[in-house]
Amino acid sequence: MTATTIPHVSTVRPRPASPVPASDKAVFRTRADEVYAQLKRDVADFIFVPGDRFTENEISDRLGVSRTPVRQALFRLQQEGFVEVLFRSGWRVLPFDFDQFEQLYDLRMVLETTAVHRLCEADRRVDRSLLDTLADIWLVPAAQRSSDTAQVAQWDEAFHCSLVAAAGNAEMARVHGDVTERIRIIRRLDFTQQPRIDATYEEHGKILKAVRANRGDQAAMLLRAHIETSQAEVRKITLHQVHLARHAGKAAPR
Prior knowledge:
This is HTH-type transcriptional regulator LutR. The chain is mostly helical.
């Protein structure tokens, strides 16, 4: 009987590809994050306006990076509803979704009025230092008020975020931070004139005084009216205003 010859099978397994060093991954992620942040600023600052088209190569050349982090950044912006990819023709900045902004303002209203109620409850552990910091900015004599639109705009956003953060609910603050990020672009079309700055100082001051006096219902009522004013301004925004904002270069957030 002839013995059957069994072919030799190598037991040597192919060597797996060398992993990308952690340091290289970190650098790659950092570049993608930087591109993402820059493009988002470009949209928020109206360097790009709704309807503008561009290619990955154009962004890559302008920012001096490869197309890979550019593509990753654009996919993130696509998921957030800022841009869309066009078949074989690059990317386009999406028009504002005003229905979505309305819903985000409604959510903001719920979060912030809930926060001020919590701040006025005696049994709650709240961050009084945050409230003191806000008082140092907003409860000042008229002669000491800032007239710098960009600075006041930043303080305004910090005011609302600090109210929620001071209430001591980290999850509430996280959700509010996300809402703030998503409406920032539209808030930049309000708050460009001195009367708006004056009104903001007055309204923030009244809200703070009510909170510090533990008058929750009054604080919530004042805050609701304050946000509704901003929400009403959003409804008036037109694409023409967006283009004017880009060319004027003076849009700032409310």
